[in-house]
Amino acid sequence: MKIAVFAGDGIGPEVTREAVRVLEALDLPGLVLFEGDVGGIAYKRHGHPLPAETLEIARSCDAILFGAVGDPDCDNLERHLRPEQAILGLRKELGLFANLRPAKVFAGLEDASALRPEVASKIDLLIVRELNGDVYFGEKGIRILPDGRRQGWDMMSYAEDEVRRIAHVGFRAAMGRGKKLCSVDKANVLETSQVWRDVMIEVAKDYPEVELSHMYVDNAAMQLVRNPGQFDVVVTGNLFGDILSDQASMCVGSIGLLASASLSDGKMGLYEPIHGSAPDIAGKGLANPMATILSAAMLLRHSLGLEAQAARIEAAVAKTLADGIRGGDLGGSHGTAAIGDAVLERL
Ligand code: ATP
Ligand code: MG
């Protein structure tokens, strides 16, 4: 089992260090870690945010644990040299087409949510967002109309096979959770969504234990706030998923706790906290490493098939939080290493 560790910029190295300590404490037989540079630090050392050496390491590993990229020093670089290009490049080069974001309110943290505590406490859902299609990658342009007005246009499209592979990711995830899948589209208006919905119904036949429902995206946005407890797995396209996954994050409320996975067809996946490099607190030992530790748990589950070990990490995190250990993002006073220590003790 080979894991690439790309810590990146800002608080990336600090939070990644704690996640690595947790992985090492599990004593997984045959586990080897390989470090590589990404982001601003990679630009400074190698002249590129995603150097060939780093890509090479990624390709030779089963999974990537990723910290964060972003560096104020790089703000004036040409777009292709900016730190953020590292993550976009990895997604493209490794065919990472499925983004998974679990949103769950841990016991004792109901107050961090933007929702009422009794509503927030019921949130335990997973958003599965397609990453490689939709309006992001369709033809687009700005044209000048005969009367001189500028008109922008973006083509939204999904082919059946693109929907099918994300559908399988969603259904497999549902099998490992509450066995409910809600497919979100806008089939009353969009042809893209009609294809999307038909394929979801077709793929559902392979997973008879999973209960499939459909929801229009506008209703889904409302239901996420009104009654998020009704959702288990939510599968949706790139654009709707972009919006709904941020919305779901804030329903939980704590940026330092939220993990994510980006998966490919095979074992390879990239796992990272949803927060960025947080330059304002970098190097101070203040960052909450929980999101990265939980990303490491997702790595064990999705890329290495180590469900029991993943659950062990998640239980240790839940216990740590239940015991009142809080980072600054949650109004607490525990620093990065202290939180890491607390999780390790409970592991
Ligand atoms: P980037 O450009 O890399 O996305 P950013 O400036 O958008 O960086 P974020 O990382 O998204 O910053 O963070 C937004 C705010 O949340 C910052 O004030 C940051 O300090 C805080 N924050 C982010 N992650 C954490 C964390 N793990 N622990 C504590 N605070 C955090
Ligand atoms: Mg940001």
UniProtKB/TrEMBL annotation:
One Gene Ontology MF term: NAD binding
CC annotations in GO: cytosol
Amino-acid positions noted as binding Mg(2+) in the UniProt annotation, renumbered to this chain: D218, D242, D246
Residues engaged in binding substrate: R91, R101, R129, D218
Assembly, per entry: Homodimer.
EC supergroup of this enzyme: oxidoreductase
Cofactor: record remark: Binds 1 Mg(2+) or Mn(2+) ion per subunit.
Pathway(s) annotated for this protein in UniProt: Amino-acid biosynthesis; L-leucine biosynthesis; L-leucine from 3-methyl-2-oxobutanoate: step 3/4
InterPro entries linked to this entry: IsoCit/isopropylmalate_DH_CS (IPR019818), IsoPropMal-DH-like_dom (IPR024084), Isopropylmalate_DH (IPR004429)
Record-given protein name: 3-isopropylmalate dehydrogenase
Keyword NAD attributed: yes
Family: Belongs to the isocitrate and isopropylmalate dehydrogenases family. LeuB type 1 subfamily.
Predominant cellular place of this UniProt entry's protein: cytoplasm
UniProt catalytic activity: (2R,3S)-3-isopropylmalate + NAD(+) = 4-methyl-2-oxopentanoate + CO2 + NADH
Function: Catalyzes the oxidation of 3-carboxy-2-hydroxy-4-methylpentanoate (3-isopropylmalate) to 3-carboxy-4-methyl-2-oxopentanoate. The product decarboxylates to 4-methyl-2 oxopentanoate.
Domain Isopropylmalate dehydrogenase-like residue range list: 2-343
PROSITE patterns attached to this UniProt entry: IDH_IMDH (PS00470)
Pfam families: Iso_dh
Important for catalysis, annotated site positions: Y136, K186
Organism of origin: Novosphingobium ginsenosidimutans
Compartment(s) where it occurs, according to its Swiss-Prot or TrEMBL record: Cytoplasm
Listed EC numbers: 1.1.1.85
GO terms (BP aspect): L-leucine biosynthetic process
CC cofactor: Mn(2+); Mg(2+)
Residues holding NAD(+): G276, S277, A278, P279, D280, I281, A282, G283, K284, G285, L286, A287, N288
Annotated keywords: Amino-acid biosynthesis, Branched-chain amino acid biosynthesis, Cytoplasm, Leucine biosynthesis, Magnesium, Manganese, Metal-binding, NAD, Oxidoreductase
